[in-house]
């Protein structure tokens, strides 16, 4: 049996007529930059997650950079980020001239360890970027409490967490991306809500920040040639927006299917002593962009699964502080013991809405056979 990591072709075939029709409308109207499809997406996406403003941009990395710039963060400032994430999280901080400050991760959630954040705060710290990694919400109540105590901004990196939810004891459930000062989303094709190319969005409940972000994304302007400051060229194009508008109809059911897949994996793998399965506390409703297990025999297991036609991934094989890109910070792996040890143990199993129970059973049987 051949099991892909994700199956974008199968997903496309299931909504082919709608997608092809939406693309045709954009082409017929030659609405390639901005236009109705983009406006519709910004409205629909903001309503879907429960936030006031949405600004479509070219990709998730740009969304982070523009959010930082909109908050006035730049040279001389420090921004706290988790030690395990895709480099875009830390790269964006450097791109605006600020200094990246890494914090180790919580071994249970893979997200930033909130108990270590305060130790990294200085008088130069201006913001925290919690990443809702793998679709698992970060502990936002505690992060927001720390941010309020030290007057810091919070930018949620929700690139992997479309429709993930976090429960506050006082105000109930909120979706990721709606709790900080600003948030970013990526619609890279492999994401839970994916375009057919690069695409991203910035969301916020702050009108002033929304206007600044929209201007930064469009060369520092609102009117065509009235540039108030230097910005970027980062706009969500009409074709990608049209595709996302179609997919937005299905994202809730796809998320429910992902949750069912994770539930099955947890149930079927729980009795294997050599594996640690991901778990979510009651206050988290993950979106399960990735289903990441840990094992001391990661490389051997991955090779075994590959031989059986099962595609897996490693997210991420090198913790951010250990990358060559950050050698100038002179960190040692022991500075981030959890992230550094996990980089040798984590393995992402196939998870996508269209995966069948038979395919899941095959993955599980293959893992059990390996550990016999």
3D structure, described in words:
It is built from twelve helices and twelve strands. 46% of the residues are buried. It has two domains: 8-248, Aspartate Aminotransferase, domain 2 (3-Layer(aba) Sandwich); 251-371, Aspartate Aminotransferase, domain 1 (Alpha-Beta Complex), CATH 3.90.1150. It is 37% helix and 14% strand. It is α/β, with parallel strands linked by helices and 372 residues long. The radius of gyration is 21 Å and the shape is globular. Helix 2 (16-29) runs antiparallel to helix 8 (238-248). The model has no long low-confidence stretch (mean pLDDT 97). The longest helix is centred in the last third of the chain and has 19 residues, at 251-269. It has a seven-stranded mixed β-sheet, sandwiched between helices. The protein has a three-stranded antiparallel β-sheet with strand order 7-6-10, with no helix packed on it.
């Amino acid at each position: 049996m051949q099991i892909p990591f994700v199956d974008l072709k199968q997903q496309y075939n299931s909504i082919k007529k709608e997608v092809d029709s939406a693309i045709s409308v954009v082409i017929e109207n030659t609405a390639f930059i901005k236009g109705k499809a983009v406006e519709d997406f910004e409205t629909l996406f903001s309503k879907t997650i429960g936030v006031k403003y949405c600004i479509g941009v070219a990709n998730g990395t740009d969304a982070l950079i523009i959010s930082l710039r909109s908050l006035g963060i730049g040279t001389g400032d420090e921004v706290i980020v988790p030690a395990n994430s895709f480099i875009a999280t830390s790269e964006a901080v450097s791109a605006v001239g600020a200094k990246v400050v890494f914090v180790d991760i919580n071994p249970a959630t893979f997200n930033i360890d909130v108990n270590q954040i305060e130790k990294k705060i200085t008088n130069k710290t201006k913001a925290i970027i919690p990443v809702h990694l793998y679709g698992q919400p970060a502990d936002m109540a505690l992060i927001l409490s720390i941010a309020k105590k030290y007057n810091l901004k919070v930018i949620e990196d929700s690139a992997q967490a479309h429709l993930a939810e976090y429960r506050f004891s006082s105000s109930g459930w909120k979706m990721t991306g709606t709790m900080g000062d600003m948030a970013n989303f990526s619609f890279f094709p492999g994401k839970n809500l994916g375009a057919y190319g690069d695409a991203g969005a910035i969301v916020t409940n702050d009108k002033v920040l929304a206007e600044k972000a929209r201007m930064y994304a469009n060369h520092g302007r609102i009117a065509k040639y009235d540039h108030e400051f230097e910005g970027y060229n980062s706009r969500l194009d009409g074709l990608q927006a049209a595709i996302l508008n179609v997919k937005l109809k299905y994202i809730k059911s796809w998320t429910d299917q992902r949750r069912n897949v994770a539930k099955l994996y947890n149930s079927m793998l729980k009795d294997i002593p050599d594996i640690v399965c991901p778990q979510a506390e009651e206050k988290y409703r993950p979106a399960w962009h990735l289903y990441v297990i840990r094992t001391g025999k990661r490389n051997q297991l991955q090779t075994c699964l590959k031989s059986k036609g099962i595609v897996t991934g490693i997210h991420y094989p090198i913790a951010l502080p250990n990358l060559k890109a950050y050698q100038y910070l002179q960190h040692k792996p022991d500075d981030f013991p959890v992230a550094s040890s996990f980089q040798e143990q984590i393995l992402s199993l196939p998870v996508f809405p269209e995966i069948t129970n038979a395919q899941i059973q095959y993955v599980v049987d293959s893992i059990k056979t390996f550990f016999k």
